[in-house]
Amino acid sequence: MSSYEDLISSLVKKFMTVVKKETIIDAANSIAGLQVSDGGDVTSLGRDGAEVFDELYQKYKAMGGGVAKIFAKQAIKPIIETNPGLSIPDELR
C-alpha cells in the first residue's frame, strides 16, 4: 500500500467513528479514481494520491466543519511523522 493509500484509509476510518459509516464510504467512493472498501481500506487509487487525499479531506471538511480538521490531523499524524514529504494541505501540518 502506498503512503497516500495509508493516508486516505486512515482518514476514512477516523471519520467512520464519528459519522455514519455508509455516508463516509459513499463520500469517498464518489471521488473519481478512488474506491474504498466497507471497512475503510483503499482498494483502488487511480489518480494522483495527493489530489485524491485533498479532495476527500475537503469533502469531509464540508460535512464536518471545523471539527473535521481536528479529526483529520489525528488520523494522519503517525503517517506524516514517518513520511514528512507527503503533500497534504498546509492546515493539516
Give a description of the structure.
- This protein is mostly helical and 93 residues long.
- The protein has one domain.
- 60% of the residues lie in helices and 8% in strands.
- It has four helices and two strands, in the order ααββαα.
- The protein has helices spanning 3-16, 21-29, 49-64, 66-82; strands spanning 34-36, 42-45.
- Strands 1-2 form a two-stranded antiparallel ribbon.
- Strand 1 (34-36) and strand 2 form a beta hairpin.
- Helix 1 runs parallel beside helix 3 (49-64), helix 1 (3-16) packs antiparallel against helix 4 and helix 3 runs antiparallel to helix 4.
- The longest helix has 17 residues, at 66-82.
- The radius of gyration is 12 Å and the shape is globular.
- The model has no long low-confidence stretch (mean pLDDT 96).
Spatial arrangement of strands, main beta sheet: 1-2
Radius of gyration: 12 Å
List SSEs in N-to-C order.
HHEEHH
Low-confidence stretches: none
Distance between the termini: 22 Å
Number of helices: 4
> What is the mean pLDDT?
96
Residue fraction in strands: 5-15%
Helix content: 55-70%
Give the tally of structural domains. Answer: 1
Strands, count: 2
| Overall form | globular
